[in-house]
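Priority: medium. Attachment 1 of 2:
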């Protein structure tokens, strides 16, 4: 299985990419200053363009982090818009600088701009993926579901099974073990949601999902087994447990859907950006 980047990794990759881009811009800056044959006005224009690119790139990086960390969708969208505007300004200035260097610039300056342009294109791709996740606030929404309605539904199912066990304490041991197993599996399922939301590694997320799938099969099999008993078909607590667990399962599906996966390292061709995180 290919290792994918989580949203936290994308933040680190984006910041690392921004740093490398700034270094490339610095190289352009000083290369222009070391060119004795350049007219003063032309050198000043190049330095000004590079400085403005550096400023806009830094602004884009800061707005991008704010978009990820914002609590509300509205704030995330506002910061995402600021990021896109700053990135567009970098692109505009890069195009202007390219046109200027095409007219008599040294080969070294052209090569530096080509390197920057390649890595900036990769940075823009990362930016699009990261902002698409940021404006959804997927982790925040997933946590809200996990600790809100999902937790409430799980508690209702667990409480109903506890009442069921208390009322049927003199019932056959096998039936009690089935109900107790379902109760324990519901609790395990609920406790696995938060670690899954917070997890960045796809491998660990897959492991947690496999465990949740096993717990889910155990709960469903137990509830179906109990409901199949003629004497329990009309049991109110069993009916409550089944209905509450059905609601919990719906919320769990929503949480797993919100916990989106993100692009692989293989999609990041620029070595400066790709090497910002071990693939």
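Attachment 2 of 2:
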């Amino acid at each position: 299985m290919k290792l994918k980047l989580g949203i936290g990794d994308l933040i680190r990759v984006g910041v690392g990419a921004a740093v490398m881009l700034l270094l490339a811009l610095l190289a352009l800056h000083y290369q222009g200053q070391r060119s004795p044959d350049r007219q003063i006005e032309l050198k000043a224009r190049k330095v000004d363009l590079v400085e403005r690119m550096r400023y806009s790139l830094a602004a884009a990086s800061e707005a991008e982090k704010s978009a990820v960390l914002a609590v509300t969708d509205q704030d995330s969208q506002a910061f995402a818009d600021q990021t896109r505007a700053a990135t567009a300004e970098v692109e505009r200035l890069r195009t202007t600088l390219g046109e200027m260097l095409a007219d008599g610039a040294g080969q070294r300056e052209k090569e530096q701009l080509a390197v920057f342009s390649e890595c900036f294109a990769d940075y823009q791709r990362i930016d699009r993926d990261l902002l698409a996740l940021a404006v959804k606030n997927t982790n925040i929404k997933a946590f809200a579901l996990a600790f809100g309605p999902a937790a409430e539904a799980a508690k209702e199912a667990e409480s109903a099974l506890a009442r069921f066990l208390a009322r049927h304490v003199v019932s056959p041991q096998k039936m009690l073990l089935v109900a107790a197993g379902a109760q324990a599996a519901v609790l395990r399922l609920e406790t696995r949601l938060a670690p899954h939301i917070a997890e960045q590694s796809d491998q660990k997320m897959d492991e947690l999902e496999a465990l949740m799938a096993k717990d889910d099969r155990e709960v469903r099999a137990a509830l179906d087994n109990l409901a199949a008993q003629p004497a329990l078909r009309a049991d109110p607590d069993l009916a409550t447990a089944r209905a509450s667990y059905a609601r919990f399962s719906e919320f769990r599906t929503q949480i797993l859907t919100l916990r989106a996966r993100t692009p692989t390292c293989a999609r990041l061709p620029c070595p400066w950006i790709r090497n910002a995180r071990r693939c």
